[in-house]
Specification:
The strands form 3 sheets. Strands 10-9-14-13-12-11 form a 6-stranded mixed sheet. It is elongated, with a radius of gyration of 21 Å. The chain is built from 7 helices and 14 strands.
Length: 283
């Protein structure tokens, strides 16, 4: 697998010696390390040893904890990656550590999702776990957004953890993630191709509903001329009737870039023959 991995706001790359001081400032912060491993490190020598272990793990397995860089600033803001659980496996664990100043921006979810995409894509892993200390509310929120499911408890790193698991994406999740990616790229043809010819679609912007490919295409042409929506799927669940509920983070801006809306809603899909037959928006 080629590094770095890039998301809209982040880059994941191998650590270098130039990262040691910045990494140590993060790893020695007791609040940052409250729920991480065995807690804060005590010296740069210990941090150097951690980064060397990450490099060795990368060389042996093709994945590791990687340096997490904020693309806008170029600053090292922590780590994220995949590692043999408790360093011995056989399970592979996803994890992250972020500097306090970056908390609350959604970086943990964005970085962890990139790691899962790598795990189930080029790395070819079948399953990834996460270990979360029970009172770590922030990480419990992250694993929920990643669609990881609870699977009991485990004593690890000297304390009790909740275990969460995530396997490869189902076919419907792959379809809908591709649909959202095409929508955000304004590749309307690709989105329409994922819809049933008689698709029933909500006109969430103007009100009412739309029927068929042509109506949806015209609707988006009007919408994209007036606003700039960006929609990121956060979590998937199968609900009554075999429908798929997708929690999405929706950001809408004006053509000039002014923020008009920033909210989380649920999109509910009915599929037929591998195509989207109907979608509803649940506030």
């Amino acid at each position: 697998m080629e590094l770095p991995l890039r998301t809209p706001r982040l880059e994941l790359r191998p650590f270098t010696d130039a990262d040691i001081s910045a990494a140590h400032r993060i790893y020695s912060d007791p609040e940052v390390m409250r729920y991480v491993g065995h807690g804060p490190v005590r010296s740069e020598h210990e941090t150097r040893g951690m980064l060397a272990a990450y490099a060795a793990h990368q060389a042996a397995h093709g994945y590791s904890f990687w340096a997490l860089v904020e693309r806008a600033s170029g600053a090292l803001i922590g780590d994220a990656g995949l590692f043999l659980s408790q360093s011995i496996g056989p399970e592979v664990e996803v994890g992250y550590t972020l500097a306090r100043r970056t908390w609350g921006r959604g970086y943990a979810t964005e970085a962890a999702r990139a790691c899962l995409d790598a795990a189930f894509g080029p790395l070819g892993l079948d399953e990834v776990i996460a270990l979360v200390v029970p009172d770590n509310a922030r990480s419990l929120h992250v694993v929920a957004r990643l669609g990881m499911t609870p699977d009991g408890r485990r004593h690890a790193y000297g304390r009790e953890h909740l275990v969460f698991r995530r396997g490869r994406m189902t076919d419907h999740e792959q379809l809908l993630r591709a649909l959202y990616a095409a929508f955000n790229a304004r590749n309307v043809d690709a989105v329409i191709a994922a819809m049933h010819p008689d698709v029933d679609w909500p006109n969430a912007w103007e009100g009412g509903r739309l029927r068929g490919h042509a109506a949806v295409r015209d609707y988006w042409a009007r919408q994209f001329a007036a606003i700039d929506p960006h929609v990121e799927p956060q979590a998937f669940a199968t609900i009554e009737g075999g429908r798929i509920a997708v929690e999405v983070h929706q950001v809408v801006r004006s053509p000039a870039g002014d923020l008009l809306a920033d909210r989380t809603v649920t999109h509910v899909y009915a599929l037929r023959g591998g195509l989207v037959e109907r979608m509803d928006v649940v506030e």
